[in-house]
Amino acid sequence: MDDYSRQATRLEAIGGSYDKWLLGAAVALASIGIVMVASSSIALTLSPFYYLTRHLVFIGIGVILAMVAMRVELKEIEKYNHLLLLGCFALLIVVFIPGLGSSVNGARRWVNLGVSKFQTVEAVKVLYIVWLSSYLVRFRDEVNATWPAMLKPVGVVGLLVLLLLLQPDFGSSMLLLGITICMLVLGGAQIKRIILPVLLLLPALVLLVIFEPYRMRRVTSFMDPWQDQLGSGYQLSNALMAIGRGEWTGVGLGASIQKLNYLPESHTDFIFSVIAEELGFIGVCGIISLYVLLVGRALWLGKRCIEMRRHFAGYIAFGIALWISLQTFVSIGVNLGMLPTKGLTLPLISSGGSSVMMTCVAMGLLLRVSYEYNRAVRRQQVRDDIEPTVEAAEQASVESASATAVAAAVQSAATRGTSRMQQRVEPTFGRIA
Prior knowledge:
By secondary structure, this protein is mainly α. Helices cover 71% and strands 3% of the residues. A 3-stranded antiparallel β-sheet has the order 1-2-3. A hairpin with a 2-residue loop joins strand 1 and strand 2 (107-112). Helix 9 packs antiparallel against helix 14 and helix 14 packs antiparallel against helix 15. The protein is globular.
């Protein structure tokens, strides 16, 4: 028992370490974001560093929230999975409450916090990924075998999408749907079962685009922005001109022309175009490489966690990787004219308080997953080293005890035999005279 107690104490004392590749990629992207927000927003207001100051404040708050997430055990978070789901619905409903919800450009997506506005869907992305990860752990076998277990998260995301479309927020709706489908596949759901709900949703999504005039204008302007360059195609045409001016090496940091009130939302949704103009093709490739590193490392981490049967941590890593990759793909695709305008920011780079803070929280969760995985690996290594030694000691102890018992039994038997035998009497004969 002493050996086992010492072993348990030693294992509990072993900690983990945070993944340096994940941390390095996240810090590098956030640092580039600070520089590019400063460059792209310098001409937007009378105060040249107004947006930079706000961005730095939100980055600071995000780092604090990330540090909190990095120190919370994942098993503690998993206990509150139902509250997280309720939080998703509460956050999407609160924007419709008069006095709390705030409307910008006809969309009710924000909550007025007094000093700033918070876009609730950014928090919903994090909470929903954690809830879906917990669901896939609890119903891992059923998701693969039964329709009800697979359709429940589809129904949940359908309700969330409905609330988002009422705001309206078509881009975030598609993002949540994409994350759900991919995570269900990774969680073991059969692809043929997922195809049917997707096929049923497609006509509804097409109708939403056709019967909503502003969405239809976005689609038509995306197909040919030069047809109405000063109207519906104004934003995309200026974005494409900025990207074209960058060529291979860019015009130089801070030397962008399009950011001088020609390109709307140059510091948020279309910051990628400013990056391409100032840093060129080489700079763009460097940034995309950092995203590939971040997402690839997160997917690798999720795979290793699943192999160690740490499914909750693994699904969180998968979910965050899918979120970052899909949102990055859409944001870059919109800037390049490959996709209609969706209003999604470039993760960790674009200005935007809600997006910056919640992306930092997601990075904190991802780093927590890496910490617990590394800790589990270290403890397993120590356990593998200790167990043979303990087993050998136990075997030696058993053998020693057996030998002692045998010797004692022999000695006892010898003692008992001697005490029971009578002393031999030598015969005597009378002396013959």
